[in-house]
Amino acid sequence: MNALPATMKAAVQQQAGAPLHLVDLPLPVPGPGRVLVRVAAAGLNPLDTKIRAGRAAHARHPLPAVLGIDLAGTVVALGPDVAGWSIGDEVYGMTGGVGGVQGSLAEYAAVDARLLARKPAGFSMREAAALPLGFITAYEGLVDRARVHAGQRVLVHGGAGGVGHLAVQLALAHGAQVFATGAAESREAIEGYGATAIDYRVTPVADYVQAHTGGEGFDIIYDTVGGATLDASFEAVRPYHGHVVSALGWGTHALAPLSFRAATYSGVFTLRPLLTGEGRAHHGGILREATRLADEGKLRIRLDPREFPLAGVEQAYRLIEEGAANGKVVVTVAS
């Protein structure tokens, strides 16, 4: 192993709305319970664009800062009190970019070892970097909150999206019958993941509830869209035993339709372990499950084919901001 450098390149956001600039920063030193990762790839999320624009107070990431929530790379140094990891391990995780913690848009990151899992053997570094936030969000909703299991009918709103396409595959892996909403142009992608596609633009809620559940309603509905889509979920859930989960339940909603069905609701806030320190080991455990599913051929990632180096991070962000991405956008930090 070559000697580590004293400095690293990082993409730094100086103020909200300003371009990111490559600068030299001191190499991070891994403290107790942390490992130093040489970052190979950094996954970008819509949340990153909101932080960058100054519209994500809930992420508590003061500027100037290094952005980037997801990473994949190689362990190059161990801090004190780290067990279970060795130099040379290929890892991935949702490790920073919020709460004042350095993000993944840098050549190295000192990260809490509890947040990491071993990279799926069949995934490239770019594919692994595209996985953490989306899969953790899907898992916390479907498994931790809704307890998805075989025989259930699950509806995923936004089934071709970053969280939605992973939620579809996760529900199928648990033996559920899966349906997913999307526009007509998403039909092929949704069906490719194994779900029954529903074009929400042309099919009213009552019609698809009748067509796919005999009017009974879905056992689990995972909303990844928010707004009126969450309200529609309250109309489509199964009485008594139905459960609605939302990763975007931040608006004002009338709960009467849900209450009249005697159904239940859960919210998902995936950033909480990063912001509070609580539950970080669970995030690592969730990603170990993602690795298992990927290694068994039950999990695929929707990755935008365009590649961007660290110096091209501005173009990568614009692709997301303009709605032109065709899957998860990943920045290649090191080969």
TrEMBL record:
The keyword Zinc does not apply. Residues 17-331 form the Enoyl reductase (ER) domain. Keywords: NADP. One of its GO terms (molecular function) is oxidoreductase activity. CDD domains: MDR6. Pfam families: ADH_N (PF08240), ADH_zinc_N_2 (PF13602). The keyword NADP applies. This is Enoyl reductase (ER) domain-containing protein.
